[in-house]
Automatic annotation (TrEMBL):
SUPFAM superfamilies: Phosphoglycerate mutase-like
Origin species: Lactiplantibacillus garii
Protein name: Histidine phosphatase family protein
Pfam families, per database record: His_Phos_1
Any one GO MF annotation of this record: phosphatase activity
């Protein structure tokens, strides 16, 4: 029987607002980020969506978001933290490189600066979320993660062309719904804050 994973991006942070590269560094949620997380919590409640387990990354912006969405207990997981950008963290987003023409991501760029490449991020997030969904009594799970990590997770299951065709966005507080069965995730839908309920 298929299980369900809701993978959520954290609420807006100060660095998001200032267009700074965040990665493994952290910054607090803004008022907008707090309001957005509460809005997602209300969305889940109004649609009668409940979770038997909840998880978030080890970064404060993810745990703060989760605590605004639900008051249930949760576990923090290093495996779903954001892409590490090395010495670029805290710097302006204008310093981000152009996407690798083949991989359509930052590729290996950040490796030379103490960060991760796209495949490393993808491998750890897929491995971590697969292990979570294989746990007993995990039928409907919420996991709060990050934009880059969520993007690389989705890239494992959808091509970049399909992501563009569907116009999938990775906004703050976006909620990606996946079904899970026998080691495979299937993308079902995404809900953004400005989507009609």
């Amino acid at each position: 029987m298929a299980k369900t994973l809701y993978l959520m991006r954290h609420g807006q942070t100060l660095f998001n607002k200032l267009h700074r590269i965040q990665g493994w560094s952290d910054s607090p949620l803004t008022e907008q980020g707090i309001a957005g997380a509460k809005q997602v919590g209300a969305y889940f409640k109004s649609h009668d969506i409940h979770f038997d387990h909840a998880y978030c990354s080890t970064q404060e912006r993810a745990s703060d978001t989760l605590e605004l969405v639900t008051d249930q207990s949760y576990e923090r997981l290093k495996g779903i933290k954001e892409w590490g950008f090395g010495v670029f963290e805290g710097e302006s987003e204008v310093l981000n490189p152009q996407p690798d023409p083949v991989r359509q991501t930052h590729g290996d760029f950040f490796l030379q600066y103490g960060g991760e490449n796209d495949f490393q991020v993808q491998e750890r997030v897929v491995k971590t979320l697969t292990a979570v969904m294989e746990r007993p009594d995990h039928q409907q799970v919420l996991a709060v993660s990050h934009g880059g990590a969520s993007f690389m997770f989705l890239r494992r299951w959808l091509s970049i062309d399909e992501i563009k065709r569907r116009q999938i966005r990775f906004d703050n507080c976006a909620v990606f719904k996946f079904s899970y069965d026998a080691g495979q995730f299937t993308f079902e839908s995404v809900h953004n804050l400005d989507d009609p309920d």
